[in-house]
Write a structure and sequence with these properties.
By secondary structure, the chain is an alpha+beta fold. Helices cover 38% and strands 14% of the residues. Bound molecules: glycine and manganese (II) ion (MN) (2 copies). One manganese (II) ion binds next to loops.
Length: 452
């Protein structure tokens, strides 16, 4: 938790942005995996955390702007609760640490929300929160002014937030190094993935998202980790830790099971690396992230043309979406308290603007961030090349974008797998800064690490 002045200042800015009404921020509850008392690890709602710093279940925070009053609602544990959970800091003390003047019991929430007042609340992403809103007779739509005000605040990370994010990234670097260390033919994906979670927990937090540790790197969000590593394959490791204050890291490396890439793997790897480096170099305030994405796509298309998989004008190929046979997703996303920061508030507000709407084209429609970058933004850069057999079969049967794609050659790569390289960047006044300690990335660096 930061000093209470940090939260007070954040709340003051939010109040000033909205001007009137009541801001309602319900915290998250414990959630049962298979029965009520067998719970998932508790994760506080990130907006609740951002404005209060209190990482404890079953609370609700209300800012009454009209009466200039802030109230934390919750119940202190009973003696019976304490038998099971141990003693907990009193709610009043937690409120004090956050600079909140008043606490009340949970049952008083409904009464506070009664009457003909404007209530600003966010779109719920958990069923429990939706049920709570219904129970309080809230039938309006979520508040767009609240969404916009929070997105404006949370998009620009403060110096103390950057420190926390870098702790998350530093733990993520340790996870990546361990994955490379353990990689060899015969080891199971889940054995490596399990060790990575242990490192995240030892770092004081937990995973920031379910680890993607797979020899099927072409499956974009493959959480299965059920295979045994085999000679000749590559491992795609996309993992992240959130630190004790819940700030995230998110890194991807792809490396060879045999500790040495084949010539074919090196060719494809270097195309992705070049796209990554070109995109990273382009990061600066004012540039549209959509344009950085398109720049990376063009570099991928140029590389694929050199390899004989694509043909024609790379710029035109990208404009028409032909490259999306190999790069079906976006170049990156905001990162902060959430791994995909504020995605629950709506990509149209976080990643786009009134003037810049999200494309519906295959590939571009998965770009979560398109708008102009500003100093203080934290984002990922994560280009990749993914050879998805069903997609290749479908497009080649349809002869889709045939003027840009050499299917005869592509079919030779049908079972190649996938490569992604991902890093986290802070946008600075001049350009950008890579977050976290260095981690092997070029082919030489990975070979040197493996053959040390
Ligand atoms: N970890 C998912 C992503 O990189 O967006
Ligand atoms: Mn990412
Ligand atoms: Mn990732």
């Amino acid at each position: 938790m930061f000093l209470k002045e940090v939260y007070q200042q954040r709340r003051n800015a939010l109040k000033a942005a909205l001007g009137e009404g009541i801001i309602l921020l319900p915290g998250n509850e414990e959630s049962g995996m298979n029965y009520k008392d067998n719970v998932y690890p508790f994760r506080q709602d990130s907006c609740f955390l951002y404005f209060t710093g209190i990482d404890r279940p079953d609370l609700c925070f209300i800012i009454d702007i009209d009466n200039d009053q802030e109230v934390l609602f919750g119940d202190d544990p009973t003696l019976y609760d304490i038998v099971w959970t141990g003693p907990q800091e009193e709610l009043a003390l937690q409120a004090e640490k956050s600079g909140i003047a008043f606490t009340r019991t949970k049952i008083e929430i409904e009464k506070t929300l009664r009457g003909n007042r404007k209530i600003h609340f966010l779109p719920p992403y958990r069923a429990e929160t939706a049920l709570k809103l219904a129970g309080w007779n809230i039938t309006d739509q979520p508040s767009v002014p609240l969404i916009k005000a929070i997105v404006a605040q949370r998009s620009v990370k403060s110096a103390e937030e950057i420190i926390e994010i870098e702790k998350g990234v530093a733990t993520t670097v340790l996870m990546q190094k361990r994955a490379m260390e353990l990689t060899r033919p015969g080891i199971a994906e889940n054995v490596i993935a399990g060790e990575l979670q242990a490192i995240a927990i030892a770092g004081g937090g937990n995973l920031s998202f379910p680890t993607i540790l797979t020899v099927n790197g072409e499956i974009l969000h493959n959480h299965a980790s059920t295979k045994i590593l085999q000679s000749g394959q590559m491992v795609l490791c996309d993992c992240g830790a959130e630190n004790s204050n819940r700030y995230a890291g998110d890194l991807t490396r792809t490396f060879p099971v045999d500790r040495s890439f084949t010539a074919q793997q090196q060719e494809v790897y270097n195309i992705v690396l070049n796209a990554h480096q070109t995109a990273a170099k382009a990061l600066k305030p004012g540039i549209l992230y959509k344009d950085v994405h398109l720049l990376a796509c063009e570099q991928l298309a140029i590389g694929l043309k050199d390899l004989g998989l694509m043909r024609g004008d790379p710029k035109q190929a990208v404009a028409e979406g032909a490259h999306a046979l190999f790069f079906q997703c976006g170049l990156g996303h905001m990162m902060g308290l959430d791994i995909h920061d504020m995605e629950n508030l709506g990509e149209e507000y976080v990643g786009y603007t009134e003037e810049l709407k999200k494309s519906t084209q295959f590939g571009l429609k998965s770009l979560r961030l398109g708008r102009a970058l500003e100093p203080g933004f934290v984002l990922t850069v994560e280009p990749g090349l993914y050879f998805i057999p069903v997609l290749i079969d479908l497009w080649s049967a349809e002869k889709k974008h045939e003027e840009f794609i050499n299917y005869e050659k592509v079919l030779q790569y049908r079972d190649f797998g996938g490569i992604r390289i991902e890093e986290d960047f802070l946008i600075t006044d001049q350009g950008s800064r890579l977050l976290g300690p260095p981690l092997e990335k070029t082919i030489d660096e990975i070979h040197n690490l493996f053959n040390r």
